[in-house]
Amino acid sequence: MKELSLFEEPIQGKPFLKWAGGKGQLIDAISAHLPNMDNIDTYVEPFIGSGAVMFWLVSNYPNIKQVVINDLNTELVNLYQIIKYDVEGLITELKALDSEYKARPTQEERSEYYYQIRVEYNARDLASRERNVRLAALFIFLNRTCFNGLYRVNGKNLFNVPFGKYANPKICDEDNLRNDSALLQKVEILNGDYAETLQYLSERTFYYLDPPYKPISETSSFNSYSSMSFDDEQQIRLKGFCDAINAHNGKFMLSNSDPKSVDDTNTFFDDLYRDYNINRVLAKRNINAKGNKRGEINELLITNF
């Protein structure tokens, strides 16, 4: 495992997952709207997802004293813990999966293998909270070989994304996994409701919030990220969380979809966050199955500073 050193070039981390709605392409816009990071001691990301913003911040602001990430998805949190504590074991498992997958020359054979792995993943012990290297490897394998890198589950919390038909997916990115492992050594990893992260709130805390987005059309809902839905009631609850941060002089930035992109009269977020700063930024979204439905669209960056 790589170790951080004050005498070496800063390690640059990046997401180890493909992720629908990932923020890698919005880093420039997000960085332009950051608070003064010299005044920030603690960074909290309560909906970590693929961690694009967290890895960028930890790579570029190594003087942040405390970093806390959280997610409700137990399997995703297991993956972060494995990368932090046993990245070499994970790499060994991924290399074996990669070899077995690519030894199958046809898409039909690879598809059959994909669905075998999906069955194994869905047979996991949902009650177990122990760190599990094999489960972490299966998560990455499915992410790299499924359709569009989606993570979607049904009401029984079973992963149900179909095969992705990629010619040469990169299943094991050793260098990036080791870099991310080094950066995660300073990160506290939680698995629970986002509201529990209020314990880290102070005047020198910055929260970046990237919840499941509000769907802006009948075909744009990819927020079945856990067996629990994130509906308008949950969006309103999250606004109360932002109010709590603001009331204690903490800083927050919230990302979400912009319903006005498709309906000028839909002012859901404009009304909900009318007391805060609402910035519209362009993002390219590629998760629609129809190519002519993909392209740039406004998203929201909402801040209290």
Q: Indicate the structural class.
A: alpha/beta
Count of DSSP strands:
7
**End-to-end C-alpha gap:** 38 Å
Number of DSSP helices?
9
Strand order of the largest sheet: 3-2-1-4-5-7-6
Q: SSE string, helix = H, strand = E? A: HEHEHHHHHEEHEHEE
Poorly predicted ranges (pLDDT <50, ≥5 residues)?
A: 287-293
CATH structural class: Alpha Beta
Whole-number total of structural domains: 1
The shape, in one word, is: globular
So, CATH architecture? 3-Layer(aba) Sandwich
User: Which superfamily, in CATH terms, is the homologous superfamily?
Assistant: Vaccinia Virus protein VP39
Mean pLDDT across the residues is 90
Radius of gyration: 19 Å
Give a short account of the largest sheet: 7 strands, mixed
**CATH fold naming:** Rossmann fold
Name the beta content range: 5-15%
Helix content: 25-40%
What does this structure look like?
The protein has helices at residues 27-32, 52-60, 74-85, 87-102, 107-122, 133-145, 174-184, 232-247, 268-272; strands at 42-45, 66-70, 187-190, 205-209, 251-257, 277-285, 295-303. It has 305 residues and is of the alpha/beta class. It has a single domain (1-305), classed as Rossmann fold. α3 packs across α7 (174-184), α4 crosses α6 and α5 (107-122) crosses α6 (133-145). The chain is globular. The protein starts with 26 loop residues before the first helix and ends with a strand.
